[in-house]
Automatic annotation (TrEMBL):
Its EC number is 6.3.5.7. It comes from the Bacteria. GO terms for biological process: translation. It is an enzyme of class 6 (ligase). The gene is gatA. The keyword Signal does not apply. Allows the formation of correctly charged Gln-tRNA(Gln) through the transamidation of misacylated Glu-tRNA(Gln) in organisms which lack glutaminyl-tRNA synthetase. The reaction takes place in the presence of glutamine and ATP through an activated gamma-phospho-Glu-tRNA(Gln). This is Glutamyl-tRNA(Gln) amidotransferase subunit A. Keywords: ATP-binding, Ligase, Nucleotide-binding, Protein biosynthesis. It catalyses: L-glutamyl-tRNA(Gln) + L-glutamine + ATP + H2O = L-glutaminyl-tRNA(Gln) + L-glutamate + ADP + phosphate + H(+).
Length: 458
């Protein structure tokens, strides 16, 4: 679809940065052959998948949608890549994202925007717009994304698909380019909740190569999705509506679809109560400080020497510092530079306590708010994002970056708390006919509950 659009001079969806057709066809043919021979195969064998271009892959480029990594080929596979291969799933290619996963619109990619299939002049969400669009536009049945502050869930919400951010440590980050390591998680992007559960079981579980990986088995996610979808599957479930994330600042059409979903849950036998998490109001501030601080440290390795692009100074002495500066100036986009500068400042001596230290304290308060809410509720719920897909260009790095950041209000708190969350479709908003997402959050290690309630509502 994208290639024929491009050939015709029309804007494509631009969901993929790299298409891996030949290898994918080979894997599919080998699966067909073994299936015909009567071999027992893994459950998702032969089901194609797209990978966000932040996940490293041997034999295919990995760019993080940044010029600084253009031309770089990873010498190894990430753990999730290995698991997908072991499950014999053909890898269709690598999907577009905001540079180094920084953004909520995929407009910060160095390789062009991705468009929302529901309205081509609208953002597909971000940072994982490519993975969500590949799935929503039926270019791939399954995809993997990463979520540091909502990059799987918000694209799912605005494209009418399903996205899951697991419990921190639930899916290995080995071989996933780091944005903010204490927040980053890999997760499924799919069209149904059951598909997400199936994929989560393939890629999840303990990995000794990731020191933050949880030492516990993944699941039983598929079983819980099936139980939730069965008659009476939601009976007795106590669902807390997060007061701070379901009123002021949210689009009317988002709130009416949200309310309808709550009514459906109630009819299915769930009990709906209201809960307050007062500290989530401070989540954006804490997130943008902690995330930027970690970004400034993680992105220090792109020095023009070890990976990808090397730019030489146009004049003057050819010192290592000057090669580094020239490479970073040419290789990073505006948003990446903004965050590196913000993070470096927040971590500098004299400001560390005032900024990074305070943000960490807020993070603790948010974690406590969630823990307290889970004393009385099985899961929490809110809309995934305050608005439906906004117009391309409306809030990008040159128009209004603060407005873009504020749109992350409902998704960043769960990354700060390390708890798992799912976004699934809740219908179309009356005012613009665009998809609305509803988000459920469970206590850490209880990802299975998300699949139960998600499949029950679906
Ligand atoms: N939109 C958020 C940001 O810009 C989240 C990004 C992400 O989850 N990778 O930082």
């Amino acid at each position: 679809l994208d290639e024929s659009n491009r050939a015709a001079g029309k804007a494509g969806l631009n969901a993929f940065l790299h298409i891996n057709a030949e290898e994918a066809l080979e894997v599919a043919a080998a699966v067909d052959k073994d299936r015909a021979a009567g071999e027992t195969l893994p459950e998702l064998a032969g089901v194609p998948i797209a990978l966000k271009d932040l996940i490293v892959t041997k034999g295919q480029p990995t760019t993080a949608a940044s010029k600084i990594l253009e031309g770089w080929m990873s010498p190894y596979d990430g753990t999730v890549t290995q698991k997908v291969r072991a499950a014999r799933m053909p890898i269709l290619g690598k999907t577009n994202l905001d540079e180094f996963a920084m953004g909520s619109s995929t407009e910060h990619s160095a390789f062009g925007v991705t468009r929302n299939p529901w309205a081509l002049d609208r953002i597909p969400g971000g940072s994982g717009g490519g993975s969500a669009v590949a799935v929503a536009a039926f270019q791939a049945p399954l995809a993997l994304g990463t979520d540091t502050g909502g990059s799987i869930r918000q694209p799912a919400a605005v494209t009418g698909s399903v996205g899951v951010k697991p419990t921190y440590g639930g899916i290995s980050r080995y071989g996933v380019i780091a944005m903010a390591s204490s927040l980053d998680q890999v997760g499924p992007c799919t069209r149904t909740v059951l598909d997400a559960a199936l994929l989560h079981e393939v890629v999840g579980g303990h990995d000794p190569k990731d020191s933050t990986s949880l030492n516990e088995p993944v699941g039983p996610l598929v079983e819980q999705a099936r139980a939730g979808a069965a008659e009476g599957g939601l009976k007795g479930l106590r669902i807390g509506v997060i007061k701070e994330l379901s009123g002021e600042g949210f689009q009317a059409g988002v709130l009416s679809r949200f309310q309808e979903s709550l009514d459906l849950l109630e009819q299915a036998g769930a009990e709906i109560v209201e809960v307050s998490l007062p500290s989530v109001k401070e989540a954006i501030g804490a997130y943008y400080l902690i995330m930027s601080s970690e970004v400034s440290s993680n992105l220090a390795k792109y020095d023009g020497v070890r990976f990808g692009l090397r730019e030489l100074p146009k004049e003057g002495p050819m010192t290592i510092e000057r090669v580094m500066a020239a490479s970073r100036a040419a290789g990073f986009g505006t948003e990446a530079k903004r965050r590196i500068i913000l993070g470096t400042y927040a971590l500098s001596a004299g400001y560390y306590d005032a900024y990074y230290g305070s943000a960490q304290k807020v993070r603790t308060l948010i974690q406590r708010d969630y823990a307290k809410a889970f004393e009385t509720c099985d899961v929490l719920v809110s809309p995934t994002a305050p608005t439906t897909a906004f117009k391309l260009g409306e809030k990008n790095e040159s128009a209004d970056p603060m407005a873009m950041y504020l749109g992350d209000i409902a998704t960043v708190p769960t990354n700060l708390a390390g708890v798992p969350s799912i976004s699934l479709p809740a219908g179309l908003a009356d005012e613009d006919g665009l998809p609305v997402g509803i988000q459920f959050t469970a206590p850490a290690h209880e990802d299975a509950r998300l699949y139960r309630v998600g499949a029950g509502l679906e």
